[in-house]
Please model this.
Amino acid sequence: MQKRVAAIHDISCFGKCSITVALPLISAAGIETAVIPTAVLSTHTAGFKDYTFRDLTEDIIPVAKHWKSEGITVDAVYSGYLGSKEQIDLVGEAVDYMKNDDTIFVVDPVMADHGVLYGGFAPDFPLEMKRLCAKADVITPNITEACFMTGTEYKSAPYEKEYIENLVMALSKITNGKIVLTGVAFNEQEMGAACYENGKIEYIFSKKVDAMYHGTGDIFTSVLTAAILRGKTLSSSAQLASDFTADCIKLTKESYPEMTYGVNFEAKIPDLLKMLGIC
Ligand code: PXL
Model:
């Protein structure tokens, strides 16, 4: 039976991130991708100014209730960038309308990077996101988001193992779900994630590509979600997602070093299908 994901994110009309990343990647993995757009913006909010913003908060629950009335359930709910405390509450509620006994809820608590909250988020936003993470089966914070949610002091890479393990243990107190902590680096050559399940941490790494592009966290969690639904373990899903994201960054750096709108993941979709064993 074909699997189905509900991706709950904003639509940034230009600038590859959120739904315009999740939909093509998860669909390419052979998984139906239903969407609940939480807002429509003319661009994403990083590096653009004067973007338009159409709030769709009041549609979240009616969409979920309509699906329920049609008997529609999903194998995974994947939430990403959410614009307000109210949206966090409503997404938490919407999951209950869509789930069956096997549904997994993947929360990427998108709100911060490099030690700072993204523009527009109030200082108490991480506490709200923490409540959504408590409901999740899998969370994928980066180091900054993990620090904000656990009250840990932010440090930049490379890290001591003890710092990462303390952060993972602090996250395990806010959720019983599995944890994929991204942005983990113990040296200058490799970057990856700490995967925590059943009381154990497993590390995965990819060769580090020295470049920063917007939307790469959305690529990572979209591929992770697809790989989990295709039956891969947490750590092999994280390895695949990390390798794929690094490949997209590398290609983009080689071909368009000045690119600020997102990476060329489209060119790498055939490779993704091979990595997932689809063809
Ligand atoms: O990639 C995460 C993301 C999604 N949507 C919007 C954003 C961001 C990150 O800044 O601004 C609107």
Notes: DSSP finds nine helices and eleven strands in the chain. Residues 10, 12, 17-18, 41, 44-46, 81, 110, 118, 215, 217-218 surround PXL (CB under 6 Å).
